[in-house]
Amino acid sequence: MANTTFHVHLSVRGAIRDFSKRELGSLFQNTATGRWLTADEAKDALLDHLAAGRSVLPLGAPCAGFDYAGGGCPGHTTATQGAVKPLRRGPTLLPKEPR
């Protein structure tokens, strides 16, 4: 028996429309410097993704067959295992430490 795994994605339009400045400010991290983008920088990055035709973004590393135009993860068949693996978040999308 097999299971299907679907990777989580973010709606770019939804994030622009619904996220507060605080949420946008903890959304993206510059991988080269480790600096978190400000809310305005994050919004600009999301607008750039929309302009490039990407309506969804993977939350973590993109998987095989990921559809940036809106479909997201197509699903991946995996063998059934006894234990469920914990979710792993991408290194650039981890939330900031609480203040």
Give the amount of beta strand, in percent: 5-15%
- Head-to-tail CA distance between termini: 45 Å
Mean pLDDT: 83
Number of strands: 4
Helix content: 10-25%
> Radius of gyration in whole Å, from Cα?
15 Å
Count of separate DSSP helical elements: 3
* H-E order: EEHHHEE
Strand order of the largest sheet: 1-4
Shape: elongated
Q: Main sheet, how many strands, which sense, barrel?
A: 2 strands, antiparallel
Structural class: alpha+beta
Poorly predicted ranges (pLDDT <50, ≥5 residues)?
A: none
**How many structural domains?**
1
What do these coordinates show?
This protein has 99 residues and is of the alpha+beta class. The chain has one domain (2-79). Helices cover 24% and strands 14% of the residues. It has 3 helices and 4 strands. It has helices at 12-18, 21-24, 39-51; strands at residues 2-5, 9-11, 56-58, 76-79. Strands 1-4 form a two-stranded antiparallel ribbon. The protein has a two-stranded antiparallel sheet with strand order 2-3. Helix 1 runs antiparallel to helix 3. The radius of gyration is 15 Å and the shape is elongated. The termini are far apart. The mean pLDDT is 83.
Task: Give a short summary of the structure.
The protein is built from three helices and four strands; from the N terminus they run ββαααββ. The chain is of the alpha+beta class. The chain has one domain (2-79).
Main features:
24% helix, single chain, two-stranded antiparallel sheet, 99 residues, alpha+beta
Question: How does the SSE layout of this entry go?
Answer:
Elements: E1 2-5, E2 9-11, H1 12-18, H2 21-24, H3 39-51, E3 56-58, E4 76-79
Antiparallel strand pairs: 1-4, 2-3
